[in-house]
Amino acid sequence: MASQPIPRLFMWGLSGSKLIQVNKKKFHKNCWRNLTAYPHLFLLIFIKSFTMVSVSTICGPFSITCYLCVRIMANRFDRLLWQAYVSTNKIFADKVMEVYNPEDYVWVHDYHLMVLPTFLRKRFNRIKLGFFLHSPFPSSEIYRTLLVRDEILKALLNADLIGFHTFDYARHFLTCCSRMLGLNYESKRGHIGLEYFGRTVYIKILPVGIHMGRVESALNHPSSSIKVKEIQEQFKGKRLVIGVDDMDMFKGVSLKLLAVEHLLLQNSELRGKLVLVQIVNPARSSGKDVQEAKMETYSITKRINDTFGFPGYEPVVLIDRHVPFCEKTAYYALAECCIVNPVRDGMNLIPYKYIVCRQGTPKMDEALGVVPGSRHTSTLVVSEFTGCSPSLSGAIRVNPWDIEAVANAVIAAIDMPDLEKQLRHEKHYCYVSSHDVAYWARSFIQDLERACKDHYSKRCWDIGFGLNFRILSLSPSFRKLSNDHIISAYKRTSKRAIFLDYDGTMVPHTSIAKNPTPEVISVLNNLCADPMNSVFIVSGRGKESLSDWFVQCENLGIAAEHGYFLRWSGMSDWETSSLAVDFDWKNIAEPVMKSYTEATDGSYIEAKEIALVWHHQDADPDFGSCQAKELLDHLENVLANDPVAVKRGQNIVEVKPQGVTKGFVTEKVLSKMIASGKPPGFVLCIGDDRSDEDMFESISNTPYTPSLPSAPAIFACTVGQKPSKARYYLDDTVDVLALLQCLADASSSNSSSTETRVSFDNDVRKEL
Fold first, then answer.
1. Which domain holds residue 604?
2. What is the pTM of this model?
3. pLDDT digits 0-9 by tens, 390-408
4. Where is this region: Disordered (predicted)?
């Protein structure tokens, strides 16, 4: 569908309208008949009046949090209203499913349908789904107050591409995902991607444009020319400034009027000359906030006109009625300056329309009496809190709360030299005309196609119930490690390297006793007894604990604290990493961890020689996870200038020096084996958490010697089915021990009485 033209036919219905209710069957019949002719047709969906009221009410708090930085709705959260919101989204999902084909692309818009992606993804795992939020996304401090915050985030992440108008809105969303869901994101070749259960959810920053054809058509309409003549006659000799806003508490209409009042008070020469035409679009609701804003607007307007007006001159002309678009274009075309100063807003397109109208058309130029070929001008005073502000680099940006600054900006705009006005206008018009709504739609659809290109190359599993539903997406090459497959490769080689994580791999995380069981000791000793094997435990635990636990395994190599300490066997000394480390950061990190420990029952701090680890496996699962996300964010902020890495693992948050990773251990061991002339033909690495991903990547990227008759058999294996850099998985620690026992048995059956047992320690360390 993305290759088809942008839709030119739209159908809509007003829920609760008697006319529509009477002709519902006829409307549906027409929709289906036209669907064949117009593939992009918007189908009519009937929603009960009560449900629509509930949806509007539940959307209110999100809308408020989107627009306000400090005010939070104090009303108690109503689950019935939330259920109505969810039910409405489900109705939309049912309607989409009626017309959906597997090759279609579905594009969902704005916060009224934020949980729709979950319902659609649940029906079709590989649906090609985009979502665009046309409102500001609140900061994490504000958003976290919503009771359904996680449900909304998880629902949005069921889309393949999520669009925002500005980077600020996208940044707030990414921060919420990081702090509340613990997700990581990165920029890849200009595209921001969130890794979510094996899927990459892309983030697009793309401000919407205007429909150029509609504006130019209005400019060429005869009624526009007639209205221009009327306005010119009405405001003859006056300097016209235009403002067009909705009547609500966010648009800053009263602040704009106060700025004009201050301007006239401080600049007497403009009295009788400057006129602000403020068009106020009819209020969409009759709430208390709207009524207060309306009363304040009328009160300030009356005060200004009473103070500075005189017969034949009104400084402020307030138009509080429905104004046809052709009439608005006439005002735009005549105004020297346009003021748009909301205190918080989405992608306000009024400045774009003003710029296009000031550029005009031949017919409009004729009506204005402009000489053909003349250069056009326009000036803009724009609030820094509106979505279009970053796109209009030539506008004068203001803080709408600073009345004096807004007044000065208006003076600067109207007194600007003509050449400067022309240059700014041409720069703006070039951008607006090339980034219209058609460009916006094409660009989003192109990125949606790119985001969905690998849908059919991965295997998908459903996880979770209700609004916690998500898709686990894994590579088709990711499969369970077969004993027969690995044993065959194991027997064919004469030198092997085996790297094993400890917690979650050799012993389960749920185990109270963390020391190794007799079964673990036995299987490790059996593997180490084979002179062809070099076996290492690679753990984040301290060297003292690991030394005590594996004292019976003399030929076992141990890497402690993610490889900062390395011991080649039980008979060798500990080696320390050559990385230069400064531990002053501990004085900053430890007090922060202590404050979270005091606030989180069941958590504790583990102080290692080079790292600090905050554990929360014994805390309440939900609260512990929430606190871990907060602690991660807190530590990243306070340690931003220190050479440390703050990582989150399985029930832990760890701070350690940069460059200390498990991948460093595998790289070091394999490099020394290769340098000794005994390169491994078999490499096995098993781990279960994020820190082990470095090992998986390292064993795959290590440059093995070309002297081997064939490429080494590499087995990177994670514990549990989850997104990983490993190609294989085992279900749990029981499977891990069973596999290792099979390898040990293969060593026993493969050994002969003529083989001389020499440990890796004696074999390699002599040459180091």
1. 586-657
2. 0.71
3. 889 899 999 999 999 999 9
4. 748-768
